[in-house]
TrEMBL record:
Residues 446-633 form the Rab-GAP TBC domain. Keywords: Coiled coil, GTPase activation, Repeat. The keyword Coiled coil applies. Residues 992-1015 have a biased composition (Polar residues). The gene is TBC1D8. May act as a GTPase-activating protein for Rab family protein(s). GO terms for molecular function: GTPase activator activity. GO terms for biological process: system process. This is TBC1 domain family member 8. Pfam families: GRAM (PF02893), RabGAP-TBC (PF00566). Residues 972-1021 are annotated as: Disordered. Residues 972-984 have a biased composition (Low complexity). The keyword Ligase does not apply. Residues 905-932 form a coiled coil.
Length: 1084
């Protein structure tokens, strides 16, 4: 066990201990008198002393000391009762710490680092023991408090688990704590006076892998778009990596792949996810993949046991898996014996008498008069009780109809049929048969034509679905036929392209059956609908199975055996292509080295996976591949693909380009024959080389399949599922990168913001969407990420999310008025009134704010203060102005700095005339602004000028311009009511000039504050008072300080840096404010 380091002097203690091993920093010692073969007096004395001591005072016989070179002070860090135990600690130190310590220059730093690491290991061991005894141990609550205090997430961010580890920064390790939450990976360290906080959202992780470096043999590497982080020195690295892999997979699929991902019920609510749930999910995924069961099947229990196997006349050691509708068995020796027992096939489950030869036995009897004996079952009583309850439920939901009819007459391929019949007698002939290496060899030889459809149903367990849903297919056909939609049009287009060379599909009978199956499935599963290559697969299924059986085989392939293959983005097929590339590098390194870009090869092999080789080799050969697929699942396709590449490795290495490689593979696949096929040969879909000048060597499919099993059959289901999990992260992130690049490609030509700044903005925009997915209940207005939509529409934000971003990155921040301005901006950008905006609209608006000309900025501000941006229900629509200040009966005389007065009467008249001419040239004129809207416009300008270095000058300038515009509006009002021209109206403005101090339309311009006790402007006073954009722009141009304000360059980079730092804290503040309604926005 690890010990809390305490300093000791060894000057007088050396006689009691003998050094066994030593290194630069560590010493492994044995207590004298322990493990000594001789009878030295000192050893016997120490041994006798330890023997008579009280058990609490006894010293462990082995220990490890930390020694700093040059120091007489040592620190015990571990002890052990046996040599094996202490050697485990020593090995851990050598693998994780020894090489690391050389990076420290200071000896004190070495001692501090090692002691801190050992203390963290002790704390983790303690928490692990407590977690085993208690659901929520005190240590976890302490860690939760620290997690919340250190990272300041909203309460909805659930901590799943935590670990002690080191995070590497260059060559220097930082000892600290790794916190894994439902949406983030976080690391905290406080070492040598320096604090380090690291927060990585799971959706930003592009690679999660185990690797090694020059210092450590095993680390976990996290790769994001911009950085790589290495974590090491875990107490149990395997456990940590599995939990991280599960969290990354669940979160990425929940947020980025909701098109084809259905969460387990236990994981539907992310805030309820626990470490135990993730471990259960991993076990569930393995269970369903290994036995190829429906996705909705939930694993209940896994227990060690032994199964009587009559063919070997002994009990086979393995594990029993029980789920909602199945009892399954897998031998510990991979491939030795597997059994799948659907509960609907089970007649009875009984306990037998417990004996020394047969401990804790149970007998499971099935309909076909077979019985399975399981022994050595722990907690047998509870197991049988729970199985009987589920058995009763299954039989109540799906009544059993016993089939007493005999087997079909099997007259073809007599040798193969005889072998299969012998096998059926010994191993069973139903879905409950013993699945052994012998049956795999029979399948590899090719299933007899007369048994093919029946065995496909048994191996895929589609027979259980067929029996459990009587009448289901007929009802689907009735509901779906006759309906016309995009899917049915696609099906009709492909019907006559499905095995056109086969006689069965050269008449309307075969075509009609194919149409019914495809249309019924599209109706059953609208998420998939219809995908190209489903027609080829279904047509082959119809050749060997009845129509309803073919439908359930298609269900098994699309929903269980090839998950996510047939949706909009074929994610599953792309994941398996990435796995295939990794297998090529592992098994065919020379070929991988020659073909630098394996993605080109993957593009060739994609059809192998999508059509199970049916479209690229002769049909009579390809059906043997399908035989193996239904028995072994996707593993069969992986190993056959490797065998094809291996057989052509020499030619592929000699190919000059991708086109030549394609020709090599196509020629080889087209000349694969099936010597045992009873029917006439039927060519593949693309026989490119039928007119060869010289004959090409023929390959027998049975030989190719045998080679695939012998050379590449060592991949287990667990390994494949692990690789799928790893590569799914990369594939999903690849799609995210593609989406990002396509959106930026459209936006970059239309704005002046630099591309690197646009990337930062896109990341902020996406993160804002994601944070709402993390911590808020889904709102109908803000749907989840939808990868089936066009690129530009995949991420959209609602008004609340837009307000956060506006506050973070907009240069037009107006204090408490910012939120109101953000609401108006959102309404302006929401053209289609769906309460959502896309990235392009968001950036176009920002581009005007940062890079637009003055007239563009004023036009945007103008539009923000007229409908639809400004509404009658706007929460700031009431004017803060006092009624007397709205009087425009004063002449246009403004105070100048030299005290002289200057009359703008002539300039005003000329301005109105010029603007009237400009209006005639404008194609689409913006509506005029009412006085109420104008007052809101002025208020926004006042708010924008607050805290500007030229604040006072700007306030005086806007007061001057406001007075001018109020006069212009009144001139237009009087002109409209009297019918006289602008010159006549201008003459009406003669009156005594007030002092300059009285010209401030808004109150105190020195402070910039707007009176709070003002009354709303009475509606009747507005009348037809209006002002146009041209009036406002021309008036603002008369004040140089205003021109300078709107034309000064703005730095978006500093805003973006601050936004990245503050985005999370702003969201947290808003979430806390929602939980405490009394807090106002002003608290920001």
């Amino acid at each position: 066990m690890w010990l809390k380091p305490e300093e000791v002097l060894l000057k007088n203690a050396l006689k009691l201990w003998v050094t066994q091993k030593s290194s630069c920093y560590f010493i492994l010692q044995r207590r004298r008198g322990h493990g000594e073969g001789g009878g030295r007096f000192t050893g016997r004395l120490v041994g006798a002393l330890d023997a008579v001591l009280d058990s609490n005072a006894r010293v462990a016989p082995f220990r490890i000391l930390l020694q700093v070179p040059g120091s007489q002070v040592y620190s015990p860090i571990a002890c052990g009762a046996t040599l094996e135990e202490i050697n485990q600690h020593w090995d851990w130190l050598e693998q994780n710490l020894l090489h690391t310590l050389s990076v420290f220059d200071n000896k004190d730093d070495i001692a501090s680092f090692v002691k801190g690491k050992v203390k963290a290991l002790i704390a983790e061991e303690t928490s692990s023991r407590l977690a085993e005894q208690e659901e929520e141990p005190e240590k976890f609550r302490e860690a939760l408090v620290k997690f919340e205090a250190r990272f300041n997430f909203p309460e909805a961010e659930k901590l799943v688990t935590y670990y002690s580890c080191c995070c590497w920064k260059g060559r220097v390790p930082r000892q600290g704590w790794l916190y894994l939450s439902i949406n983030h990976l976080c690391f905290y360290s406080f070492f040598l006076g320096k604090e380090l906080k690291l927060v990585v959202p799971w959706v930003d992780i592009q690679k999660l892998e185990r690797t090694s470096n020059v210092f450590l043999t095993d680390t976990i590497r996290i790769t994001t778009q911009s950085k790589e982080r290495d974590f090491s020195m875990f107490l149990n690295l395997d456990e940590v990596f599995k939990i991280m892999e599960q969290l990354a997979d669940v979160t990425l699929r929940r947020l980025l792949d909701n098109e084809g991902f259905d969460l387990d019920p236990d994981l539907q609510e992310p805030s309820q996810i626990t470490k135990r749930d993730l471990e259960a999910r991993a076990q569930n995924e393995f269970f369903r993949a290994f036995f190829r069961l429906p996705r909705q099947e939930k694993l209940h229990a896994v227990m060690d046991c032994s199964l009587w196997t009559p063919f070997s006349r002994c009990h086979t050691v393995g594990r029993m898996f029980t789920s909602d509708s199945y009892i399954c068995f897998a031998s510990k020796e991979d491939g030795c014996c597997n059994v799948i027992l659907p509960l609907r096939e089970v007649v009875s489950i009984e306990k037998m008498e417990d004996t020394s030869l047969l401990p804790n036995p149970i007998i499971v009897s099935i309909r076909s008069k077979m019985a399975f004996q399981f022994i050595e079952l722990k907690d047998r009583d509870n197991l049988v009780e729970s199985l009987l309850v589920r058995l009763k439920q299954v039989h109540a939901n799906h009544p059993v109809h016993y089939d007493t009819s005999g087997d079909e007459d099997m007259s073809r391929e007599q040798i193969k049929i005889s072998l299969w019949n012998d096998h059926f007698v010994e191993y069973g002939r139903t879905v409950c048969m013993f699945r052994t290496e012998k049956i795999r060899k029979l399948v590899a030889m090719g299933i007899p034509e007369s048994l093919r459809g029946k065995l496909w149903l048994l191996f895929s367990d589609a027979v259980t679905d067929l029996a459990s849903h009587p009448g289901y297919y007929g009802n689907l056909v009735e509901e779906s036929m006759g309906k016309c939609c995009l899917v049915t049009e696609e099906i009709e287009r492909d019907l006559h392209r499905s095995l056109p060379e086969h006689p069965a599909f050269q008449n309307e009978t075969g075509i009609a059956a194919l149409r019914r199956v495809l249309t019924a499935y599209a109706h059953r599963n609208p998420k998939i609908g219809y995908c190209q290559s489903m027609n080829i697969l279904t047509s082959v299924l119809l050749l060997y199975a009845k129509e309803e059986e073919a439908f359930w085989l298609l269900v098994a392939v699309c929903e269980r055996m090839l998950p996510d293959y047939f949706n909009h983005r074929v994610i599953g097929a792309q994941v398996d292509q990435s796995v295939f590339e990794e297998l090529i590098k592992e098994h065919l390194p020379e070929l991988a080295e020659h073909m630098n870009d394996l993605s080109a090869l993957a593009s060739i092999s994609l059809s192998w996976f999508l059509t199970l080789f049916l479209s690229i080799m002769p049909l009579e050969s390809a059906v043997n591949v399908v035989d193996c697929f239904f028995y072994d699942g996707i593993k069969a396709i992986f190993q056959l693909g490797l065998a094809v590449l291996d057989a052509n490795a020499e030619d592929l290495c000699g190919s000059k380009d991708d086109g030549q490689a394609l020709m090599v593979l196509s020629r080889f696949l087209d000349h694969i024959k099936n010597e045992d096929s009873p029917g006439p040969p039927i060519g593949s879909h693309h026989a490119f080389f039928s007119d060869d000048q010289e004959p090409y060597p023929v390959t027998d499919i049975a030989d190719l399949i045998r080679d695939s099993y012998e050379k590449f059959g060592d991949q287990s289901v667990e390994q494949i599922e692990h690789m799928r999990c790893k590569h799914r992260i990369r594939v999903l992130q690849g799609h995210e990168d593609t989406t990002k690049q396509n959106v930026l490609r459209v936006v970059i030509p239309e704005v002046s913001i630099l591309p690197e700044d646009l990337e930062e903005l896109y990341d902020l925009f996406k993160r804002e969407h994601m944070m709402s997915c993390y911590w808020e209940q889904p709102r109908p207005v803000a749907p989840r990420h939808d990868p089936s939509r066009p690129y530009a529409e995949q991420y959209r934000i609602d008004a609340r999310q837009f307000a956060h971003l506006f506050q973070l990155v907009s240069p037009w921040t107006c204090g408490a008025h910012t939120e109101i301005l953000a609401e108006r901006t959102f309404r302006l950008l929401d053209d289609n009134m769906d309460h959502l905006i896309e990235f392009k609209a968001f950036v176009s608006c920002l581009d005007i704010m940062y890079n637009g000309e003055m007239n563009e900025k004023i036009k945007l501000l103008y539009r923000l203060h007229i409908p639809p941006a400004l509404t009658e229900n706007d929460r700031d629509s009431q004017s803060p102005l006092k009624n007397p200040l709205l009087s425009t009966s004063r002449p246009l005389v403004f105070g100048k700095s030299n005290g002289d007065a200057f009359d703008y009467q002539k300039q005003l008249k000329q301005m109105i005339k010029d603007l009237a001419k400009e209006k005639d040239k404008t194609e689409k004129e913006l509506p005029k602004m009412s006085q109420r809207e104008f007052i809101q416009f002025c208020k926004t300008l006042y708010s924008m000028f607050h805290e500007d270095p030229e604040e006072n000058d700007l306030y005086q300038a806007i007061a001057t311009v406001t007075t001018l515009l109020l006069q212009i509006g009144e001139v237009g009002q009087r002109s409209g009511s009297s019918g006289s021209g602008s010159q006549e109206c201008g003459e009406e403005l003669q009156a005594s000039a007030p002092s300059p101090e009285q010209d401030s339309v808004f109150a105190d311009t020195n402070t910039g504050k707007i009176p709070q006790d003002s009354q709303g402007f009475p509606e009747g006073a507005e009348g037809d008072w209006t002002i146009s954009l041209e009036h406002i722009l021309a008036s603002l141009l008369t004040e140089q300080s205003l021109v300078n304000f709107f034309e000064k360059p703005l730095d978006i980079k500093s805003k973006l840096e601050n936004a990245k730092i503050n985005q999370y804290s702003l969201k947290t503040l808003e979430m806390n404010r929602q939980s405490q309604p009394e807090l106002k926005l002003s608290s920001l």
